[in-house]
Write a structure and sequence with these properties.
alpha+beta, single chain
Length: 127
């Protein structure tokens, strides 16, 4: 019992702390790298159609100082576009954009790297 409450508990605590801290730092670095890559990518506008739409719901649990817990959730919205060459591109969009787009819509997609910028509907030009 002395072993667990001695050095082993402290070692496990510090290992877990550094693992969680490392995951947070890794996530931040990856996000900044993607943001930077998008900023250095050209803005492209291409003919595209909306192929599919999907959502992803994330649940978050927050502990309060008084011992209570609060649960919240957030929804991410994704749309898959198909360009004339047949290539597909899934981009994250805002909830309002998601609501305006329908599967089968055709138009001009503007994006920069993995960043969705806009979609302007036009008459269908290719099948």
């Amino acid at each position: 019992m002395g072993f667990f409450f001695g050095g082993a508990f402290e070692a496990v605590f510090f290992i877990m702390f550094f693992l969680v801290f490392g995951m947070i730092v890794f996530t931040l670095i990856r996000g900044v790298a993607e943001w930077n890559k998008n900023n250095h990518s050209p803005r492209l506008t291409v003919s595209a159609s909306v192929v599919t739409k999907r959502t992803q719901v994330s649940h978050h649990h927050h502990h309060h100082a008084g011992g209570g817990m609060h649960t919240s959730r957030s929804t991410s919205y994704y749309v898959t576009f198909e360009v004339e060459s047949g290539d597909r591109l899934e981009l994250r969009v805002s909830g309002s954009e998601y609501g305006l787009l329908a599967e089968g819509d055709f138009g001009m997609l503007t994006f920069q790297g993995t960043r969705y910028l806009s979609f302007d509907r036009t008459a269908r030009e290719y099948q």
